[in-house]
Design brief:
By secondary structure, the chain is mainly α. It has one domain (about 10-180): Cobalamin adenosyltransferase-like (Hypothetical Protein Ta1238, Chain: A). About 60% of the residues lie in helices and about 5% in strands. The chain is built from five helices and four strands. The chain has helices at about 25-45, 50-75, 90-105, 120-145, 150-170, and strands spanning about 10-15, 20, 110-115, 175-180. The strands form two sheets. A two-stranded antiparallel ribbon has the order 1-2. The chain has a two-stranded antiparallel sheet with strand order 3-4. Helix 2 runs antiparallel to helix 5. The radius of gyration is 18 Å and the shape is elongated. The N and C termini lie far apart (about 55 Å). The mean pLDDT is about 90. InterPro entries: CblAdoTrfase-like, CblAdoTrfase-like_sf, PduO-typ. Keywords: ATP-binding, Cobalamin biosynthesis, Nucleotide-binding, Transferase. This is Corrinoid adenosyltransferase. Homotrimer.
């Protein structure tokens, strides 16, 4: 199989159900999800399996689910032949992970600066790219049909990235740095 097809040489690409311009908001949305998936892979490459075995397993599953998100976004509409893949159950499955990793970290009352360990910094990049993907999907949803579970999934996923970035710092012995001009904006976990 050849990698190049030449079918996109005039600025269009195939999606499930037709062809669109390469700068179509649908392509921008699933392209940003693809970019996020790459950053997740990069973050995983920075994690020591002995310290982060559980996180690595969860992130691998997330990578597969991000492909599902991209697949759903690449469909002009759901059909019997091409049903949506992202489900409410996938969104709900992220919540126990958020709770589990959040329980590892100390209470937070102020905004924190992204950074610390290499893994944490990479996970904060995942969080911000996830938020951008979510914004692209919101724009797409205003104009065209989408699977609404993709939007919910990305919203919850960005919360998970925030939580596991903090977990990564904790496991690496790094302290989160509070934004010094932040008011107290978070409530105690208890």
């Amino acid at each position: 199989m050849k990698i190049y097809t030449r079918t996109g040489d005039k600025g269009q690409t195939s999606v499930i159900g037709g062809r669109v311009n390469k700068d179509d908001i649908r392509v921008e949305a699933y392209g940003t999800v693809d970019e996020l998936n790459c950053f997740v892979g990069q973050a995983m490459s920075l994690m020591n399996p002995e310290k982060f075995g559980d996180l690595l397993e969860d992130l691998l599953q997330i990578q597969h689910e991000l492909f599902d998100c991209g697949s759903d976004l690449a469909k002009l509409k759901e059909t019997e032949k091409h049903p949506f893949k992202v489900t409410a159950a996938m969104v709900e499955a992220l919540e126990p992970w958020i709770d589990k990793y959040d329980a590892e970290t100390p209470d937070l009352t102020r905004f924190i600066l992204p950074g610390g360990s290499s893994a944490s910094s990479a996970l904060h990049i995942c969080r911000t790219v996830c938020r951008r993907a979510e914004r692209r999907v919101v724009t797409l949803a205003r104009e065209q049909e989408i699977n609404p579970e993709v939007l919910r999934y990305l919203n919850r996923l960005s919360d998970l990235f925030f939580t596991i970035a903090r977990t990564a710092n904790l496991r690496e012995g790094q302290t989160d740095v509070e934004y010094i001009r932040s008011a107290e904006v978070f409530r105690s976990k208890s």
